[in-house]
Design brief:
Blueprint (H helix, E strand, L loop, with lengths): L2 E2 L10 E2 L15 H25 L3 H18 L7 E2 L5 H11 L1 H20 L3 H4 L4 H23 L8 H6 L1 H5 L4 H16 L5 H7 L4 H16 L24 H31 L13 H17 L6 E2 L1 H9 L6 H16 L1 H4 L4 H14 L3 H9 L3 H13 L2 H21 L2 E7 L2 E7 L7 H9 L6 E7 L5 H16 L3 E5 L11 H6 L25 H37 L5 E6 L6 H5 L6 E6 L15 H12 L4 E7 L3 H8 L8 H6 L3 H8 L7 E2 L7 H17 L3 H9 L3 E8 L4 E6 L10 E4 L6 H6 L1
Parallel strand pairs: 6-7, 7-8, 9-10, 9-11, 11-13, 12-15
Antiparallel strand pairs: 1-2, 3-4, 5-6, 13-14, 14-15
């Protein structure tokens, strides 16, 4: 055992590094949260799987097969542990069309081939490429599928059968409305009413009963009413498993089958990968920050979906994809591993084998109403607002219309063409205007300067009078080489004829390239010079020797720095600060860190004005409630941030080489009670925690700390997070799930930030600080 002692061994207890405990034998364990989550997902998946099978025209058992395979195969081999796979509403239109064209057995074979293609794409590691598809196209595709589903199921709701296309369903609707089946409409109306009202039940009792899925309650209620009232409506009819149809050799035109394989591959892959990304965001939004749940491995997820489609098609099931509704339910129910997804698949298998008589009681109009509501919900108002805000509503509308009127593959292709056209239009849309102000010629260039805009730019430049004073204002984020050469050549010629040219940005800040002489004169200047007290280009004539002169020189440096801010930085941030002045501050988190001058919070977190409510003190300490003895500044800041500003998270940030922790280690019992010593007494619980045998030492990226000071710095972050929980407002918000706590350790010498894992149960888990990689910026990690 290694013994670590400070320089003054008589003034502090001995600190020992515990041995790493031996790893226990690996056993298959199921957490209670996974068990309860699997039941919740099963209760949602069972009626939806039957409804989607009904909507496609496939054997009803195929929906149960796909749900079971999605849970067991995709759940076991996929790369997103908490994503739930199964028959998806987004595949309804594709599958229905394939069944109508080629029959059920060939459709199963197409599903197997699509799974093999997905396995090949996973081997090529192209999963990330699917995310390059514009969200407007994806949302438009899903909305178009939702409209098609809703139109088809509306006919079943009214007591008839749907037509082969969305257009035919719309044209046949007037005749259907003239011959409504009252019993089917009544059962459907009851199902829709329960689906819409169940999540809105008020009161404490409503909160309890809302834990039962609305889809399950709606189907059970409709089944009970139909049974007790003796309504003459069609019911589910699950045939014997002995007659279950398995795939056969593909029969049909090669190009048609290839198009079917491509369509299923495209829809299932994109939907599954986007759903996996959404699941990662949901997991990260948990109060514990998703501790213990790994991020999705997209290539592995694609392979898992491919394997599931191969197995599902081979067993006579529907195509499989990641399903957002069931995945959200799984995450919301508190699942922590892939065991919940696999267990839900097991429950589907048991239900398909043991509950056939019960399932045969379900009225088909109830399932049709359930799927119709799901289709309507796929046309998301939130998505429409998002694409409108990003000026991509045309792409969304064209994709939606193409999917409804022509087909999924054709609609997506139209969306891609329109998205490219919109991008090119934005790239070539350059406005060039000219005006005269105070005897100077002002040329405003708004938009991206590419080679396509060079003719108009050259025409506008050569219309300016020779020898005039010209200001060229560039308001865009891109200038290609052709535009740069055109502007540079004209500038050189205009200056040669006695004119002047000044190029500025949209804020009026001058744009210029430094000359070699300027660079040589200001070699000390770097982007971080304001933090290093450099005054670029301002060398004092003589070195002050007296204290008064030194103080005066320091004051001049401060004034010079303020002047530089007013001249260079203020024009860039004035609009944002004016907005904050009007609207007030709405920071996202309270950031509590040390007063050390080397810690620049905005640099570490890549934050700006209004982002952080920052509290700094010596040692980043959080005194326990009531122990600040006359100075409640930290407690007041916590209360104001949590109660008034309603921050979403609190971060405690420690750092390497902390002088406060060094002073705490070296403190002796006979030291005079100076203000610093009195303040550092709030850090004694951290020192006691470090030397206690009840707590394992914190680790940093898998290694033990370099020395006792670093160990105390790490332990102090953990201890102050525990102190935060003792504050009543913090404890209440944590219980509500509206506040999260985070720990950060910044290694000054390495310029590396580390996030603390396991802060939600600091008494039970080893505290591990994990490195924040450049591909996963700290602000992205904390934004969840």
């Amino acid at each position: 055992m290694t013994l670590i002692t400070p320089a003054r061994t008589t003034n502090r207890p001995r600190v020992q590094r515990p041995h790493s405990p031996p790893e226990p034998p690996r056993r298959f364990r199921i957490a209670g949260a996974d068990l309860s989550a699997s039941v919740a997902v099963f209760l949602i998946a069972l009626p939806l799987s039957l409804g989607i099978a009904l909507a496609t025209g496939a054997p009803l058992q195929s929906g149960l097969v796909a749900a079971a395979v999605g849970g067991l195969v995709a759940g076991r081999f996929g790369g997103s542990p908490l994503q739930v796979s199964g028959p998806a509403a987004g595949l309804t239109v594709v599958t229905a069309e394939l069944i109508q064209l080629y029959g059920w057995r060939t459709t199963c074979a197409i599903t197997v081939l699509a799974g093999l293609v997905q396995l090949g794409l996973s081997a090529l590691r192209v999963a990330r490429s699917a995310l390059a598809v514009s969200p407007a196209i994806v949302h438009g595709m899903l909305a178009g599928i939702g409209v098609t589903i809703a139109l088809a199921q509306l006919h079943i709701v009214l007591g008839s059968t749907p037509q082969s296309s969305a257009v035919d369903n719309v044209l046949g609707l007037p005749a259907q409305l003239a011959h409504i089946h009252p019993a089917a409409l009544g059962i459907s109306a009851l199902t829709v009413a329960v689906l819409l009202c169940w999540p809105r039940l008020p009161g404490r009792a409503g909160k309890l009963v809302r834990k039962v899925p609305a889809a399950l309650v709606a189907v059970i209620g409709a089944t009970a009413v139909a049974a007790f009232a003796g309504l003459a409506v069609p019911h589910v009819d699950l045939p014997s498993w002995s007659s279950h149809a398995l795939p056969g050799l593909p029969e049909g035109p090669v190009l048609g089958i290839a198009a079917g394989v491509l369509t299923i591959t495209l829809v299932t892959s994109v939907q599954s990968l986007l759903s996996a990304v959404a699941v990662d965001k949901l997991v990260a939004a948990r109060p514990d920050g998703g501790r213990g749940v790994p991020r999705s491995a997209l290539d592995r997820e694609l392979a898992g979906q491919g394997a599931a489609n191969v197995v599902s098609g081979a067993l006579g099931g529907l195509p499989v994809a990641g399903v957002a509704v069931r995945s959200v339910a799984n995450v919301s129910a508190g699942a922590v591993s892939r065991a919940s997804t696999m267990l839900h698949g097991l429950w589907i298998v048991l239900a398909a084998l043991l509950l056939v008589p019960v399932l045969d009681l379900i009225p088909l109009p109830a399932l049709a109403a359930l799927v119709m509501v799901v289709g309507i919900q796929m046309v998301s108002i939130t998505h429409i607002r998002t694409v409108t805000r990003h000026r991509e509503v045309v792409v969304y509308a064209v994709t939606l219309s193409g999917v409804v009127l022509i087909g999924i593959l054709e609609g997506v292709a139209l969306g891609i063409v329109v998205a490219i056209a919109v991008a090119l239009h934005r790239l070539t849309r350059t406005r060039i205007t000219r005006e005269e102000r105070d005897g100077r010629q002002l040329l405003h260039v708004r938009g991206q300067l590419t080679f396509l805009a060079v003719p108009r730019l050259s025409r506008a430049l050569h219309q300016l009078p020779h020898g005039s004073d010209v200001v060229v204002e560039l308001d865009g984020s891109f200038m290609d080489h052709a535009a740069y050469e055109a502007l540079s050549d004209w500038t050189a010629g205009h200056v040669a004829h006695g004119g002047t040219v000044e190029t500025t940005g949209p804020s009026g800040a001058r744009i210029a390239e430094p000359t070699a002489s300027a660079a040589a004169a200001h070699t000390c200047c770097r982007p971080w010079t304001p933090w290093h007290n450099h005054q670029c280009g301002e060398q004092p004539d003589e070195r002050p020797d007296e204290a008064v002169e030194t103080s005066r020189a320091t004051g001049l440096k401060l004034a010079s720095g303020i002047g530089k801010f007013q001249r260079n930085t203020a024009p860039l941030v004035r609009d944002e600060l004016a907005r904050l002045a009007r609207e007030g501050q709405t920071p996202s988190q309270l950031f509590l860190t040390c007063a050390d001058s080397r810690l620049v919070t905005s640099m570490i977190t890549s934050s700006g004005p209004g982002d952080l409510f920052t509290v700094r003190n010596v040692g980043n300490l959080v005194p326990l409630p009531g122990e600040e003895s006359g100075d409640d500044s930290v407690a007041a800041a916590i209360e104001y941030a949590v109660e008034v500003l309603r921050v979403e998270s609190i971060t405690v940030c420690g750092h390497s080489g902390c002088g406060a922790m060094q002073a705490l280690l070296n403190a002796g019992p006979d030291d005079p009670p100076t203000p610093l010593r009195r303040w550092l007494r709030h850090g004694r619980p951290s020192l006691e925690r470090m030397v206690s045998r009840r707590h394992a030492w914190a680790r940093i990226s898998g290694r033990l700390p370099a020395d006792a000071v670093e160990q105390l710095c790490l332990t102090n972050v953990v201890q102050q997070l525990e102190h935060l929980r003792a504050y009543e407002p913090v404890a209440r918000r944590l219980a509500e799930g509206t506040l999260s706590l985070h720990g950060v350790y910044f290694h000054v010498g390495e310029a590396q930030a580390y996030l603390l894992s396991g802060t939600d149960e600091v008494h039970s888990y080893d505290d591990v600080f994990t490195q924040v990689l450049p591909t996963e910026p700290l602000e992205a990690a904390r934004a969840s």
